[in-house]
């Protein structure tokens, strides 16, 4: 019983990071109708940024959060301007292929520059913290990751739902023609989506370095998980993605308790069930 | 005057003005197959033969992918599942003492069945959902095969080395040419199957489905049924590549037989060479295998590899600049040459295409 | 009086709390040109979609050629002899005009040669010969509309559903299109057309059905309908 409780808590904590990763993915999808297959690689680059901030500058991953956020935001902008923005309006195939190509490219870049070896930050500051609440043990890195991810997810949701600029982004997503009549340049809004998604994934990457190791393939499992989360929350829904992230995290934690090899398989099966039975997502109304 | 058929190929001079793609003529096919047959005689070293064998093998798989992804417009990122079906079925039966030919032949309908079984529920999904669903199915199978007992798990399977003969589909490693010609034979079978499928009603139907499903249904096309048919043939062809591949390397494990990277590479080959173009996947496969071989020699031992980096850059570049892939670029380069050649050999009054259409009708 | 080809019987369609169509009934006689008109949002397109099998009715029955075909799939409709065009043109963009027509005629001819021959005949009839080899995506809107009509015709329909094929055309183009519609009808094809442009549809149609807020408010010969007070009221503020 205490094992189960422990996995639920662990699941909730990592679920917050899933939510943060998924928020960027669902934002790009919701506004541009593009699936970013390179999303996990953006997380991976965030992890490397944080790692090198530690190995070169001696920064704790907590302090490298802004650096990773800004770097990956710029990377996101570059990906949009250099590639994705150039295939807008082409066939869905062209759009799927271009982000897929970016995925392969970024992974290849990491492998070429930094070798396939895994990089870990030993003993980050958060590792010194530890709480015991009844039978449940909560590690400092997990708490830091969850709190940071929740704050960042909340910030993205606030930006999209409560600010003028966020409203403009949504308007550009709903009806680009009408938005441009109102003086909103849809292409600028699309670029902004990639910046925000980059920020979110960069922050997620830095947070993850508190207990995960960076490697060229580190992003793969996160992006697959993010697909599941996005489908679960309803494609394009930010609040949905945030809630679904926590839910999928818990599900993964519980499955991991009984069948640790099958957590990803279970999540993917969940994706299939969701899109086939309830394509609008668990929380969607469409 | 007999009505031109789909086989009628527009003269290269027209390609620029009329990007409507046609299936290749027999002449093109004969020229390409002849060039492929001559390759191992021109390049005599074993390394070149190895490149050719792999390029043909992956060319088969990418051609299979192209039928579903390129012609029918259903972008699958899970085709490793069918490659793996071919590889694992063949490995399983050959280890049991079966003839590899029979084993490969048996794996084809099995893969077709799997492809149809995946397609049955998933073809209802819109493009992105469908693509992710194919990843999900293939990854689930990958995880199951890696963990469940019975299919070699993570260690994979080795196949027994037996006496070299055509019947055993094993040849001396000193001279790889027999492997090459078997691969070429298999490629021809695959290409012929795709060509036969595409040339008549089914080919028109799947292209119509790719262009507009709603309009396709409105002219009497059972959209779901034709997607399933394309998926089944596509799966079977990809399994053919898997079956031959396992006989060539005599080993299969989840990453080499079922991995996501494998699915990705089929897609990349087709896209690089020219998606929805008949010879595109073969060209793409040849280029990628060649690049991979080149970079592997260059950076061997360092653990770094430049091939992924190059693939990715190539894919992004091609999809931005020329959605028709390398084949489209080649055709564009070839067009002025062909025009000049054509002008020299034909009469002066080559009518404008629009007028010629009126004359015909 | 000739036989009834299409019978729409209390057909209703609801989206959420909104009735797009409610208890609409009318029939189309063999060989007629029937017009379906009404202000924007009157439910013309939904009714059309139900006849073509693209939309499942919430209630009511649909009979075609003596068979109950309520809720049939669109490809079955096409096979049974319902051809349709789309208001927002949906051509097979990557294919040539000839291939567009051939694809459609495959529903009656399984051999490529026969399908292609029929496609050429239809091209002649619909005036598509000058663009036969062009990729459909490169056509102008007027040509695309014509291709839509040709493609529907290539399925050898008994009933042809035309969705606003005349709107958005220049007067010359519209006159040509009207001529094509008449020619098709003279060839024995029954026509049901949705239209906004009243001036063209009045002389063309034998009968009109008027929809308003999803319900039928009037039916009859064009002059009769034009003077129906209910119709005048529905169109109030619009030039009739």
Question: What features would you describe in this structure?
Answer:
The complex is a heterotrimer of chains A (286), B (361) and C (240). By secondary structure, chain A is mainly α. Chain A is 72% helix and 3% strand. Chain A has one domain: ABC transporter involved in vitamin B12 uptake, BtuC. A two-stranded antiparallel sheet of chain A has the order 1-2. Chain B has a single domain, classed as ABC transporter involved in vitamin B12 uptake, BtuC. Chain B has 16 helices and two strands. The N terminus and C terminus of chain B are likely disordered. The two termini of chain C are 30 Å apart. In chain C, the strands form two sheets. A six-stranded mixed β-sheet of chain C has the order 6-7-8-3-9-10, with helices on both faces. In chain C, a hairpin with a 2-residue loop joins strand 9 and strand 10. With 240 residues, chain C is α/β, with parallel strands linked by helices. Chain C has one domain: P-loop containing nucleotide triphosphate hydrolases (Rossmann fold). Chains in contact: A-B, B-C.
Percent of residues of chain C in beta strands? 25-35%
* Biggest protein-protein contact in the assembly: A-B, 46 and 47 residues
Summed over residues and divided by their number, the pLDDT of chain A gives a mean of 84
Low-confidence stretches of chain C: none
- CATH topology category name of chain C: Rossmann fold
Number of spatially distinct domains of chain C: 1
How many β strands of chain C by DSSP? 10
Highest CATH level, the class of chain C: Alpha Beta
Task: Name the CATH homologous superfamily of chain C.
Answer: P-loop containing nucleotide triphosphate hydrolases
Distance separating the two termini of chain A: 38 Å
Tally of individual helices of chain C: 9
Q: Bin the helical content of chain C.
A: 25-40%
Task: Quickly name the level 1 CATH class of chain A.
Answer: Mainly Alpha
Q: Which percent bin holds the helix content of chain A?
A: over 70%
Model regions low in confidence, pLDDT < 50 over at least 5 residues of chain A: none
CATH fold-level label of chain A:
ABC transporter involved in vitamin B12 uptake, BtuC
């Amino acid at each position: 019983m205490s094992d189960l409780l422990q996995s639920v808590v662990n699941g909730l904590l990592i679920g917050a990071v899933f939510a943060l990763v998924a928020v960027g993915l669902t934002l790009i999808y919701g506004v541009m109708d593009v699936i970013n297959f390179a999303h996990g690689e953006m997380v991976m680059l965030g992890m490397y940024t944080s790692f090198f901030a530690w190995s070169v500058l001696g920064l704790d991953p907590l302090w490298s959060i802004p650096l990773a956020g800004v770097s990956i935001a710029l990377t996101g902008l570059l990906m949009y301007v250099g590639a994705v923005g150039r295939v807008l309006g082409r066939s869905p195939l062209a759009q799927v292929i271009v982000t897929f190509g970016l995925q392969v490219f970024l992974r290849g870049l990491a492998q070429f520059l930094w070798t396939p070896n895994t990089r870990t930050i030993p003993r980050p500051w958060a590792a010194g913290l530890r709480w015991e609440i009844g039978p449940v043990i909560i590690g400092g890195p997990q708490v830091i990751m969850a709190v940071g991810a929740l704050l960042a997810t909340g910030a993205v949701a606030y930006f999209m739902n409560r600010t003028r600029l966020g409203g403009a982004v949504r308007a550009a997503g709903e009806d680009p023609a009408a938005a441009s009549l109102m003086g909103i340049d849809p292409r600028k809004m699309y670029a902004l989506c990639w910046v925000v998604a980059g920020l979110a994934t960069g922050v997620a990457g830095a947070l993850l370095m508190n207990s995960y190791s960076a490697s060229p393939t580190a992003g793969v499992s996160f992006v697959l998980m993010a697909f599941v989360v996005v489908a679960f929350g309803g494609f394009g829904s930010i609040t949905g993605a945030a809630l679904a992230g926590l839910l999928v995290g818990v599900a993964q934690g519980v499955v991991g308790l009984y069948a640790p090899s099958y957590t990803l398989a279970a999540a993917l099966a969940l994706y299939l069930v969701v899109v086939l039975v309830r394509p609008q997502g668990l929380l969607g109304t469409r | 005057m007999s009505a031109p058929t789909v086989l009628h190929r527009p003269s290269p001079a027209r390609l620029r003005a009329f990007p409507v793609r046609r299936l290749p003529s027999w002449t093109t096919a004969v020229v390409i197959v002849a060039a492929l047959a001559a390759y191992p005689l021109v390049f005599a070293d074993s390394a070149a033969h190895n490149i050719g064998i792999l390029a043909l093998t992956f060319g088969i798989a990418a051609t299979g992918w192209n039928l579903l992804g390129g012609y029918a417009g259903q972008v699958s990122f899970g085709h490793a599942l069918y490659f793996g079906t071919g590889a694992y079925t063949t490995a399983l039966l050959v280890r049991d003492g079966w003839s590899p030919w029979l084993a490969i032949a048996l794996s084809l309908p099995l893969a077709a069945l799997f492809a149809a079984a995946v397609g049955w529920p998933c073809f209802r999904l819109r493009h992105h959902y469908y693509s992710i669903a194919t990843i999900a199915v293939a990854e689930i199978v990958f995880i199951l095969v890696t963990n469940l007992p019975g299919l070699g798990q993570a260690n994979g399977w080795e196949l027994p080395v037996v006496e070299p003969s055509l019947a055993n589909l094993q040849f001396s490693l000193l001279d790889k040419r027999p492997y090459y010609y078997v691969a070429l034979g298999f490629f021809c079978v695959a290409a012929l199957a795709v060509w036969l499928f595409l040339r008549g009603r089914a080919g028109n139907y799947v292209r119509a489905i790719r262009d507009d499903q709603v309009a396709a249904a409105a002219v009497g096309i059972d959209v779901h049924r034709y997607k399933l048919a394309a998926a089944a043939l596509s799966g079977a062809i990809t399994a053919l590549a898997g079956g031959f591949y396992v006989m060539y390397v005599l080993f299969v494990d989840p990453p080499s037989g079922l991995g996501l990277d494998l699915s990705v590479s089929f897609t990349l080959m087709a896209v690089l060479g020219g998606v929805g173009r008949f010879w595109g996947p073969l060209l793409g496969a040849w280029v990628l295998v060649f690049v991979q071989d080149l970079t592997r020699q260059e950076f061997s031992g360092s653990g770094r590899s430049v091939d992924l980096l190059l693939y990715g850059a190539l894919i992004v570049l091609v999809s931005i600049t020329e959605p028709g892939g390398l084949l489209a670029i080649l055709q564009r380069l070839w067009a002025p040459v062909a025009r000049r050649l054509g002008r020299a050999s034909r009469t002066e009054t080559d009518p404008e295409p629009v007028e010629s259409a009126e004359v015909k009708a | 009086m000739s036989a009834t080809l299409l019978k729409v019987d209390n057909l209703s369609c609801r989206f959420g709390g909104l009735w797009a169509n409610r208890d609409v009934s009318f029939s189309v006689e063999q060989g007629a040109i029937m017009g379906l008109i009404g202000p924007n949002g009157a439910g013309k397109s939904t009714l059309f979609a139900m006849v073509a099998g693209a939309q499942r009715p919430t209630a009511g029955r649909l009979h075609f050629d003596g068979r109950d075909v309520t809720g049939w799939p669109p490809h079955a409709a096409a096979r049974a002899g319902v051809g349709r065009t789309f208001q927002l043109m949906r051509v097979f963009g990557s294919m040539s005009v000839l291939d567009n027509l051939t694809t459609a005629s495959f529903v009656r001819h399984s051999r490529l040669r026969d399908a292609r021959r029929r496609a050429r005949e239809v091209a002649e009839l619909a005036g598509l010969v000058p663009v036969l080899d062009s990729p459909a995506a490169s056509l102008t809107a007027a040509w695309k509309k014509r291709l839509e009509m040709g493609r529907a015709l290539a399925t050898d329909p008994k009933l042809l559903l035309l969705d606003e094929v005349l709107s958005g055309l220049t007067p010359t183009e519209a006159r040509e299109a009207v001529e094509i519609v008449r020619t098709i009808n003279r060839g024995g094809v029954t026509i049901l057309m949705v239209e906004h442009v009243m001036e063209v549809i009045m002389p063309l149609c034998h009968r009109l059905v008027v929809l308003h807020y999803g319900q039928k408010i009037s039916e009859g010969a064009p002059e009769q309908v034009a003077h129906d007070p209910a119709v005048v009221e529905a169109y109030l503020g619009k030039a009739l």
